[in-house]
Amino acid sequence: MIGRASVESGQKPLLSLRNINMTFGGVKALKNVSFDVLPGEVHCLAGENGSGKSTLIKIITGVYRPQDGAVIEYDGQTYSHMSPVTAQAAGIQVIWQDLALFPEMTVAENIAFQTVLGRWPRIVNYNSMRETAERALARLGVTLDVDRPLKDYPIAQRQIVAIARALIGEAKLVFMDEPTASLTQSETDHLLDIVRTLSASGVAVVFVSHRLAEVLEISSRLTVLRDGALVGVYPTTGMTQSRITELMTGKTFDQTIRARDVSANPIVLEVEGLSRRGQFEDISFTVRRGETLGITGLLGAGRTELALSLFGMLKPRSGTVKLEGKPVHFSSNRDAIAAGIAYLSEDRLSLGLIQPQSIADNLVIASLDRIMAGGLLSDGSKRALVAQWIADLGVKIGQQSDAISTLSGGNQQRIAIAKWLATDPKLLILDAPTVGVDVGARAGIFDIVAKLADSGLAIILISDEVPEVYFNADRVLHMAQGRIINQFTPSDCALQDIEAAVYA
Ligand SMILES: Nc1ncnc2c1ncn2[C@@H]1O[C@H](COP(=O)(O)OP(=O)(O)OP(=O)(O)O)[C@@H](O)[C@H]1O
Ligand SMILES: [Mg+2]
Q1: Within this chain, do residues 430 and 336 fall inside the same structural domain, yes or no?
Q2: pLDDT digits (tens, 9 = 90+) for 330-357
């Protein structure tokens, strides 16, 4: 199956990997994987969380060294492994998830500093750097003020800066590991245009995304990994989301509406006339016991600011919040946690997790006050508690003492959810809980959410993916420009009704 597409198309691959094996501790992250990329193609790497996508990219770009026996053929040369320097010199570039940029430096410096490194005398010619940067941006059809510090620009523009930087080194092959995870729909569309421009100019792009609609839209071929092993290589034409899901997981998932009528349940949260200047205006709603209230709308609609206010992290200017009938005023998130509110942040890069710390410590960090109420937390009881959550949420880990950073994105997400559930909240706010999470794990997370709701928890589910709220919430609020402008009941409307309103 491997290489068939390239044989059929008669094109010689730009990159061809054989016998790639990689083991971390006891975990076989890649098992005898083969992979190839044709010149100028857009090739997607698909697989569930932890299936080995990022590891494969790190091997090609020289971050990790594969086990003996690996063969890497690239542009007419054969290597047993790459180093970051050889990979870059050969025109292989990566846009990392964290972008690896310098926020305090200007756009021009971020894009072009490498071109002046190592030159002598060490007087940086800012004008030439600026020109290089502008040329790289122009290639992407983008204009930015290159003299402004990068921190003035939002994430989508920073990503473009990272791509522009990758291009000045005569890139032939660019890897993008989940580049759209923190972008809005229109930013994503723009990024996909940039990928097409790159491909048309002969640069091959390997693209990783858990949003399968995007995968279908952008790629010409698709390599699927499952548990570190190659499932196959497929032309994208004729593929469907459900077929890819099946290849990735070996299972099929069908979506059904969950929405139930919970109007007889007691009210947990009551928000009235809540406003915060420039962010949200006159917000009123209730959430009942056992209810999942969806909030959707485009990014920037004020959803996250609203959530942060409910969680004590932003002070509303006016309005009231009642929890189980009593008015509450939080001056910090600690107050909110103590009152029974948990908030899973949308921040995909940190998730509120402390990367160098262990899985176990990250899991108990928010609930220490509660579990230590009776005295000290013994190692044994901590281990048992952590083991219970890991089993309940189906998290794949090595040791509890491993750093959280060793887990794949989706497994980190589950730990972040477990961390909040361990606080035994009355109200759980999930802000974009499945960003960067694969289809199988999404289904797993929503199963968990449904069970939590069934056990009486009140849940606010914030997502800009309309199907997510449509299928999993009992009611859906639509926010735009800081206001609630529509309310939908999934059992009484079609998915398209909500999508039409949101994307109007
Ligand atoms: N540095 C590391 N130390 C230990 N284990 C690791 C390390 N890097 C990756 N792993 C393990 O290797 C496996 C593959 O991880 P990888 O990050 O490649 O997955 P992925 O397909 O990119 O997943 P995701 O979609 O969640 O980003 C996982 O089981 C992960 O926990
Ligand atoms: Mg990854």
Answers
A1: yes
A2: 999 999 999 999 999 876 555 578 888 9
Ligand 1 in reach of 407 Cβ (< 6 A): yes
* Number of domains within the chain: 4
Q: Is residue 142 part of a domain?
A: yes
Cα(280) to centroid of ligand 1, in Å? 39
Does the Cβ of 403 fall within 6 Å of ligand 1? no
Asked if residue 347 belongs to a domain, the reply is no
Structure-block tokens of residue 298: 């485009």
Q: Which domain holds residue 396?
A: 353-424
Given this model, what pLDDT does residue 371 score?
Answer: 66
Ligand nearest to the CA of 248: 1
Residue type, 272: E
357 within some domain: yes
Phi, psi of 383 (to 5 degrees): -60, -40
Token output for 297: 């709308």
Instruction: Find the ligand nearest to 26 CA.
Output: 1
Q: Which atom of ligand 1 is nearest to the CA of 436?
A: 25
Ligand 1 pocket, residue 328 CB under 6 Å: no
Does 359 lie in the same domain as 417?
yes
Nearest-CA residue for ligand 1 atom 12 is 29
Which pLDDT does position 1 carry in this prediction? Answer: 39
CA of 381 to the centre of ligand 1 (A): 28
Residues 177 and 84 in one domain: yes
% helix, strand, coil for the chain, step of 5: 35, 25, 40
The per-residue pLDDT for 157 is: 86
Ligand 1, from 58, 408, 414, 439: best to mutate by most atoms within 8 Å of Cβ?
408
Instruction: Tell me how many degrees the CA angle 20-25-26 measures, rounded to the nearest 5.
Output: 85
Domain check: are 149 and 176 in the same one? no
Domain boundary among 191, 218, 252: 252
Q: Is the separation of the CB atoms in 158 and 101 below 8 Å? A: yes
Has residue 162 been placed in a domain? yes
pLDDT for res 7: 43
Do 446 and 460 lie in one domain? The reply is yes
